[in-house]
Amino acid sequence: MTWNNFEEFKNDVGKYPEFVDVALYIAENVAKNFYHYDSEVKPLSYGTKGRTFLVDNDRKVLKVTTDQNEALRAERIRGKHAPGLVGYYDVREITSQHDIFQDHYVSLMDRLPKMLVDDPFLHKIFDTMDDEYHFDTGGMFDSDLYKMTEKQLRKNIPIYFEEKFDPLGEWSTPLSEYTPEEQKRIVQLVIDIIRIQKTMAKFGIETPDLINKNLGFDDGGRLTFFDMGYGREGEGQKTIRKSPYVIERFSTFK
Ligand SMILES: Nc1ncnc2c1ncn2[C@@H]1O[C@H](COP(=O)(O)OP(=O)(O)O)[C@@H](O)[C@H]1O
Ligand SMILES: [Mg+2]
What we know:
The chain is of the alpha+beta class.
């Protein structure tokens, strides 16, 4: 369902602005009036600062957020070659005559076909490594690995993890005891985590919320990070570099 203006929307779904689903209204209007998608806008998830919606026949995700840092980061990588990070098409701040829309941002991005949490094996491997390295607070593997090409990584990761890798968390099962197929997947996961961390460093995304829930796989099956917001309130706010880009506005938003 779409509405021509906010009054119509209020009459339809709620009388009082504070009870009105502002994010849904923004998503519907942006999808219809600015991106000109005729397909249904489908709510996908709820978060503390953001909501996501499927748009463009479920091919893209439209995120509505009040997290300005998230929008600034998304804008920084929009249209850029950023391996391992989700592709953004558009990032904007909403401006409107209605106060209720203040401080809302939208970003339009690729929809990843699969989430890490939906892959039980890699999800568990990721969590095991995360317990050791704490990726969400910037934790990294041995720094030598970050200087290697992917070809070199494929050769060296098995050596690096030979002694200390165990998905059950006991750190006793060497990598070589996994099936060849599992070993390949573990090595690729490490390669992809390194790829994401290198891209984040390149774009100055310093304290990413690099957790299992914010990772998925792209069309080629490679691990991809998609949530540029802070998961933890306030953390890292002081270290954010201001984007040199001005976020464009939907200034005609009614
Ligand atoms: N680009 C995307 N492709 C597929 N699913 C996505 C995408 N972005 C978000 N989602 C889904 O929506 C959920 C919430 O999105 P996220 O950006 O992590 O929001 P929050 O800020 O609430 O954590 C994700 O866990 C995922 O299931
Ligand atoms: Mg998230």
